[in-house]
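Annotated sample (chain length 447).
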Amino acid sequence: MRYLPLNQDDRRAMLDKVGVASVAELFRDVPPSARDAKFDLPDHAGEIEVERTLARWATQNTTAGSQPFFCGAGAYRHHVPASVDHLIQRSEFLTSYTPYQPEISQGTLQVLFEFQSQVAILTGMEVANASMYDGSTATAEAVLMAHRITGRHRTVLAGSLHPQYAETVATMAGLIGDIAVGPVTPGQTVDLTSLIDEQTACVVVQSPDVFGMLHDLKPIADAAHAKGALLIAVVTEAVSLGLIEPPGAMGADIVAAEGQSFGNGLNFGGPYVGLFAAHEKFVRHMPGRLAGETVDADGRRGYVLTLSAREQHIRREKATSNICTNSGLCALAFSIHLSLLGEAGLTRLAKINHAKAIALADRLTKVKDVRLATPSFFNEFTIVLPKPAVAVVDALLNRGIVAGIRATRLYPHESGLNNHLIVAATELTTEDDIEAYGRALQEVLSC
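Output written by the structure step:
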């Protein structure tokens, strides 16, 4: 067969060369739970049969735009102008990779330079890199960067940091240091003072946090700096930066964010684009690439790859990162969308998002026994229901409402969050959506 060319004799020769008796022995270090996983998939088939199977499976999906949709928690449904998709599909953008030869990559380098400038302005920081994979890995890279800067290896995470971001940090940084996690307290001010000591490299706080709560980062920054630690601010909803005070103005040393909200659809969870910014004095410790502006021998403006201390450029152990290939096309979509909005448009978009969330919160809390858990929020908040959220979400889904994300889906071991539901609204949320949600919730809770 064309794509399965090896026979048993070939496999036996390969195993003998490696020095193992069987394929099972070759993978003996893989946990049995992963090694013996079974997938409910049909056997190989022809192209037409595969297309029919996939098409049938696709009909089981419910698209976010087909009914009232209120999910957030790190991925948000925003309007993406048609011009964004049109421009990123130009061949010079769609097929390009890394600008290793600046003399023939001026367009790509300029895009990255403009993207960096936008991110630096949004976050209130002095320098930004040319994007990263996503918000979670950007957060983990920020922690590793703080370790390099401070020479310390203890990390303090706010309990309201998105749990998946916290898991990524633990995966990447947990082997080289200790990680302390604050309490999970929806709607309360973050206080990590008791966890910060002289061995702490960084404190990681998200605002708006996973429950939607906005936090004043200044007291946290002061507490961290008093112990010689850095403050890493995390943002999962980039649109909020069009309205709230940027992390850099509140004392953040490093900002890691998810940029999906601009130019990038939900896309079943990816690909997304990580934003990363810091103070200029830390630039040599930054992961990823940095595009810069210069002039050529004739004095004409040009762009260069100024900094790229990743493993393929220098010795692996000297690299600032081993995973930080930039999400170039997603970063371009981000930059185009933000350019189309402009400063006034971004502010207006942010205000619309906030107003929609206020209207939604007002409507839902009019339902008997439903209360708001997050008094300060942008376009996402948490409500507390009189019944377990899992049953309410299922009942609302049967009524055509995607009601949000139950907190126990993110915190499965926090029984105190059984009745908490995380709800988001964006500029795509209509008055009819809000009213439909309110009516349906009242019906479900009265049953």
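Annotation: The first strand starts at residue 127 and ends at 128.
Annotation: The radius of gyration is 24 Å.
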